What we know:
Blueprint: H1 2-6, H2 8-27, H3 40-45, H4 50-77, H5 84-89, H6 97-106, H7 109-127, H8 137-158, H9 161-166, H10 168-195, E1 202-207, E2 210-213, E3 218-223, E4 227-232, E5 237-242, E6 247-252
Antiparallel strand pairs: 1-2, 1-6, 3-4, 4-5
Helix pairs in contact: 2-4, 2-10, 4-10, 7-8, 8-10
Transmembrane segments: 6-27, 34-59, 101-126, 138-157, 169-186
Keywords: Membrane, Transmembrane, Transmembrane helix
Amino acid sequence: MKRLITYLPLLTICLIYFGFNNLYGYYHEFGIEIYNYIGSAEIVMSFLPTIVVLGSFFYSAAYQNLVFMSKNDSKFAQRPDVSSEMEQEVTPVRRSRFKEYFYAMLYNTLFWFIVINILLSILRFVVLRYYIDWELQFFDLIVAAIRIGLLIGILYINRDFDWFLKNSILFSLICIYFIGSSISNFRAADAKKVKAGYPIAQISFSRNGSTVRTGKNLLYIGQTQTQLFLYNRKDSSTTIYKQSDIDSLNFRY
């Protein structure tokens, strides 16, 4: 419980930042600068989608575990190295420089981090030949989780916790930015799906004596407390209506 209270401010910052990315990534695809139409309350409440909650708790848990492991590792580091005398007696095996570089590269975690990232990028490029970009949003989310997992794994395998403790703020900013960007990309894929003709819902409402209905070309994007957004597929335009001017708003999912 004490740990949860300790990291509560960090979790709050994550929720606000991830929540903003959740909204911005989606509405930016329609040319809407959503920060002009939302208040702080709506940003905070935007953490309700599962992706934002999972992202926040994933980062908080990973950060907490790294701190815990780094403290334990510092305790082990203080123990005397008993195996040092045994290692001195072992005669080193002579290898060519090429083999030395090769084996050093194989045991270098940064090398595998780069290789796996390249393979993931190639895999996405191949998969894109069979799927539309927005259909890969969950694939991209899994890849993002793998990448941040690899980064944490490098610190764990190398036991390079001193670097983490000295640069914890930098590490936090990198992880928060990375997860925020992943959430933004995920929501951008949702927007592309809507543009492709798969709206969230069909709506109808009355305004100034006339009725507005969404359909094949006029799509419902979303709404805030004060605005409602519709997207026209014919001319790729977005229309913004004030909630105060709308009567009899009906939804059909």
